[in-house]
Automatic annotation (TrEMBL):
Signal peptide as annotated in the record: 1-22
Lineage, top ranks: Bacteria, Pseudomonadati, Bacteroidota, Bacteroidia, Bacteroidales
Keywords: Signal
Name this protein carries in UniProt: Uncharacterized protein
Superkingdom of source: Bacteria
Species: Bacteroides oleiciplenus YIT 12058
Gene3D superfamilies: 3.10.450.360
């Protein structure tokens, strides 16, 4: 019985330690992040598939910085609270193309190391379950739209490839 209790305790400690360290990225990923954001201190690391993501708040904006497992910067998601914070051509194009009744669920500005910035406006039709993601270039050009009704509206690097 004593062996069972010790085995159970050891197993629980292993599970707890694995979950604590599951979000800690390799040192080279942490170093790459620090090169980009040397002054950021409150970082929450998490993992999605093969990506390490650093989440933090800077200038009152939530940011998620994505890195590959080999510490290459993939993209940065910046949450924006209103159309006033996106480039004016994007806000103008959006206002021309979308007619009420809709609700903006979220706005994200996605920056990349080697690709142009993309602004995503996720909308939902009022009194409906229909949800659409609109992808804009900074000049206001609508690049693409996805109907994500009933699916995942999660943003991930493969959407831009």
């Amino acid at each position: 019985m004593k062996k069972f209790k010790l085995s159970l305790l050891a197993g629980l400690l292993l599970i707890i330690s694995a979950s604590v360290f599951a979000g800690t990225p390799p040192v080279k990923v942490q170093e790459a992040f620090k090169k980009m954001y040397s002054k950021v201190t409150n970082i929450e690391w998490f993992r999605k598939s093969d990506y390490h993501i650093a989440g933090f708040v800077s200038d009152n904006q939530v940011k998620d910085v994505w890195f590959s497992k080999d510490a290459q910067w993939i993209m940065t998601e910046t949450d924006v609270e209103s159309l006033e914070k996106v480039p004016a051509p994007v806000a103008k194009a959006f206002m021309k193309s979308e007619t009420p009744p809709i609700q903006i669920r979220y706005i994200k500005i996605i920056t990349f190391p080697k690709m142009p910035t993309v602004i995503i406006i996720d909308i939902e039709e009022e009194n409906s379950d229909k949800e659409i993601q609109l992808f804009y270039a900074p000049d206001g050009t609508l690049l693409k739209s996805y109907d994500v009704t009933g699916g995942s509206s999660e943003i991930y690097p493969e959407l831009f490839g």
